[in-house]
Write a structure and sequence with these properties.
mainly beta; Elongation Factor Tu (Ef-tu), domain 3; 2 helices; 14 strands; elongated
Length: about 230
Amino acid sequence: MAQLNLSYTTVRSPIAGRASRANITAGNLVNEQVVLTSIAGVSRVHAYFDGSEQTFLRIRAANEKTPAVRMGLANEEGFPHVGTLDFVDNRLNPQTGAIRLRASFENSKGQFVPGLAARLTMATSAPYAAVMVPERAIGTDQSKKFVVVVGADGQPQFRGVQLGTLQGGMRVVGGGQLKAGENVVVDGLQRIIPGVPVAPQVLQVDAQGMPVPASPSPAPQAPAPAN
């Protein structure tokens, strides 16, 4: 009986991990409501995020294939850490139409701690051809999204689009009303008036398709003073 009572004086953690600060020191009176410390499991970490209904349907269509999830921390470029999707909730949120997902990442080096903010990306389908436009080229009309296309005659045309994933500042758009190669307005959407022609300035694009701002014209030089 004495050995049994003595065993109750040792508190063993149910999981392996890192202990926080000790809230109680030797000699203090404790009971079942006192928190001695907190333990954070660090062998693996989980990142929770919300996915759209389309994302959920693509995951379900993949059957047994588990998509990879890539993660980047606030001080990192890109998504250098690779994990796996290990949890999909059993229902969508009726208010937002999103579903809660979870990705699991190996943390044997202890570089992740609970509570960190992270950026996540997940490939949920095979590669496919898509039309992409800069994010700032998309306008909003109540609940509808649109882009403005300028043809050879300078007439602006409003095209409704359905938004897809965001890839480095470029948004995948669907709906079939926008075709590859058409010129869309990226600046000055608020100045477009239906039926009034515009004089567009075509911007150069970089390797990712993002428009490169035109360099400002040099200011005229002041005349040299006469002797």
